[in-house]
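lol forgot to send this yesterday, sorry. struct tokens for the thing we talked abt
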């Protein structure tokens, strides 16, 4: 994330440096469309073409070259100021991102681990499929928790397994014929969905609505529904003694350390907290 520089200006400088939108977008780790749109918007605002489009690439126009020559020294100075500020300021608050497919119960457990280890965090939720600029994302967040496997350059990663349980009230034949709804605590997740569809092919799968959690528990207690949930979620629920809690599957979550400054004492405490508290 560039604090002092607009995205449009950043993309203009990238295209000037690389000579094409294709190479510039690869360097910035985004698709060509938003970069081309940003250049076009900048040209519309300025009232002149910055580049001459050709088969050979993006050739700077006379006006574009003049603008670049005036901006380049200031641009580099702003980048240097930002780099120095990041190195000099040791933020006490760590920015932590959770991918959308992680259950809320897991997020709350991990947040509690941070708190128990005296680590101040600011939490955000992200849809990894809709991040336009992953470089800016990495510069903003310190830590990312994701169920999806990612290839992130220069990022330390640590895997954690957590168990998922099936909570139900089977009938006398030990089947699930009376169950109509399978409640779960996940966004779309292909591994969990595949097992749900395989084990309960004709049942309705409904994501838990926390505003209606009492009714959901009543459905489970009465045998009309079943619940797929993590241990941390079950620990806060009141389940009747005659309800069966059985192992459903084990899933993996990965923690990525995105910035060097997160290494050291705080992260050691974090990892110890994750292992010691065994919330997975």
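and heres what i got for the seq, position by position
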């Amino acid at each position: 994330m560039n604090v002092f520089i607009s995205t449009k200006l950043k993309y203009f400088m990238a295209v000037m440096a690389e000579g094409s939108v294709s190479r510039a977008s690869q360097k910035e780790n985004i698709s060509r469309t938003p970069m081309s749109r940003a250049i076009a918007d900048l040209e519309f605002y300025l009232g002149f073409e910055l580049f001459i489009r050709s088969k050979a690439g993006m050739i700077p126009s006379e006006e574009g070259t003049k603008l670049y020559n005036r901006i380049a020294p200031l641009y580099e100075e702003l980048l240097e100021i930002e780099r120095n500020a990041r190195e000099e300021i040791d933020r006490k608050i760590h920015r932590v991102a959770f991918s959308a497919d992680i259950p809320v119960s897991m997020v709350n457990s991990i947040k509690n681990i941070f708190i128990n280890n005296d680590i101040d965090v600011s939490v955000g939720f992200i849809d990894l499929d809709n991040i336009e600029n992953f470089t800016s994302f990495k510069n903003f967040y310190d830590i990312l928790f994701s169920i999806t496997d990612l290839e992130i350059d220069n990022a330390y990663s640590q895997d954690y397994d957590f168990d998922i349980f099936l909570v139900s009230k089977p009938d006398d034949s030990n089947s699930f014929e009376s169950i109509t709804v399978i409640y779960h605590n996940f966004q779309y997740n292909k591994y969990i969905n595949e097992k749900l569809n395989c084990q309960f092919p004709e049942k309705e799968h409904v994501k838990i609505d926390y505003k209606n959690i009492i009714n959901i528990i009543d459905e489970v207690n009465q045998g009309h529904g079943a619940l797929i949930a993590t241990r941390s979620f079950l620990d806060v629920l009141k389940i009747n003694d005659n309800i069966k809690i059985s192992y459903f599957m084990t899933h993996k979550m990965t923690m990525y350390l995105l910035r060097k400054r997160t290494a050291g004492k705080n992260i050691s405490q974090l990892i110890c907290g994750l292992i010691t508290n065994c919330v997975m």
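The chain has three domains: 7-91, 94-159+253-277, 162-251. anyway ping me if u want another try
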